[in-house]
Amino acid sequence: MTSNKNDFQNELFSPVYGRAWDTRNIPEDKLPENSMRDDEAFQIVRDEINLQGNPDLNLATFVTTWMEPKAEELMRLGAMYNLIDEDEYPQLKVIEDKLIRMQAGLFNAPNVKLVSGVSTNGSSEAIMLGLLAHKWKWRNHREKQGLSTDKPNIIFGADVHTCWEKFARYFDVDMKIIPLKPGKYTINADDVKPLIDENTIAVGAIVGTTFTGQVDDVEGINQLLLEHKKQTGQDIPIHVDAASGGFVLPFVQPELAWDFRLEQVRSINVSNHKFGLVYAGMGSVIFRHHDDLPENLPFKINYLGGSMDNYSLNFSKSSSMLLAQYYNFLRFGHSGYQRIMTSVMKNARMLENYLVKSGHFDLLTDSKYLPVVVVTLKNEKQFTVYDLSNELRKFGWIVPAYSLPANAEETNVLRMVVKENFSHDLAQKLVSDIHRVIKDLTAGQGAGNLEHNIKKGKSSTKPHGIC
Length: 467
Ligand SMILES: *Cc1c(COP(=O)(O)O)cnc(C)c1O
Hints:
Blueprint: H1 3-13, H2 38-49, H3 69-78, H4 90-106, E1 116-120, H5 123-144, E2 153-157, H6 162-170, E3 174-178, H7 189-192, E4 200-206, H8 218-232, E5 238-241, H9 249-252, E6 265-271, E7 283-287, E8 299-301, E9 308-310, H10 320-357, E10 361-365, E11 372-377, H11 385-393, E12 401-403, E13 412-417, H12 424-442, H13 450-457
Parallel strand pairs: 2-3, 2-4, 4-5, 5-6
Antiparallel strand pairs: 1-7, 6-7, 8-9, 10-11, 11-13, 12-13
């Protein structure tokens, strides 16, 4: 054998680590000159991904980090199908419509056959599409009456997710933001009432706020808007942001009326990739009645073959998440979701109890609506929630600390979202690591400059990394 042939054989049959790539520089600024083997490329990408946090220990996000293997199989299949190609893949649209109706039923739509809705990239797109429809309805109505349409406004609380402010900025709508205050982190009818005027396109209500997991008083706001309609004839819709609560409340608080049971609730968004239990990449917006989506707003397109309506901010995307969500709906059914949600709520309460019992924490809110544990430190003199959060990172835990939105910025919290794969066992491990961190911090190890940490944690903008 020639040595060349030997080299080649060696390279071909050597273990994955130990081949040439393993000791070679991987270019960062240009396309590599030559090809490499599939398993090598895979390993390099896989290793790079490993440099980050572990999704299983990420309690900062509501977004799903575990799915059943069969669902993953369908996701691989779905990646081949562009969801927009309705003419070539008509069954995808059939599935999408089925999912919209199933969700409309879950949200108590008076008639699921009359709803309208689309699947989106997430709640952010869903919220923008929902609010845009209300802006157009308001404008169409004003134009018909010969009234001005240059000053639309929208009312919501400071407890909203950033995407509401994004909508206002991107689509030129004035925001009327109701500030929070210490001890009050949601909004109600009394907050909304003085802000209503003829240019109000909608009122936003959150079920399951990102910051505390509490719910706005949708029922009270609905009552207010019904009375307003009776007195003035002005019909102001409510858009409910159920990004995080949409798949929890129907199972753990079925009596709570926050959805289409309330007449003024005209549209609802939900993040399927939160408690719909699919990986990141899917939300939905559902309109109570197809008339709530102005017919001149969706685009009619015909160049993909056939003619179809398109209402979305983006165009092409994979069908993976749609198929994964369909799988979950069939696989879990109502009783399956109920089991999972009951169990995450139990684990959240258990975590709360452990933290309270430790004597170091106060509950900011109790996890009645969402499996979200939000605590404050009883004593912030020796160390802060920001120190705790930093120190927990050393054990792999991702537990965010942040200050609440205006005007409750003085409150610094630690928040843990309990998800499907956060078992009782993991919860106990987290609690034991928290104890250890507190012990070290009390003994003066680990904490940085306290002043600095408090300043660093506090910001007037919304915290990153929580979603
Ligand atoms: C997560 C969240 C959003 C944003 O949802 P995405 O699906 O991540 O776009 C909006 N509102 C609330 C209340 C949320 O919890």
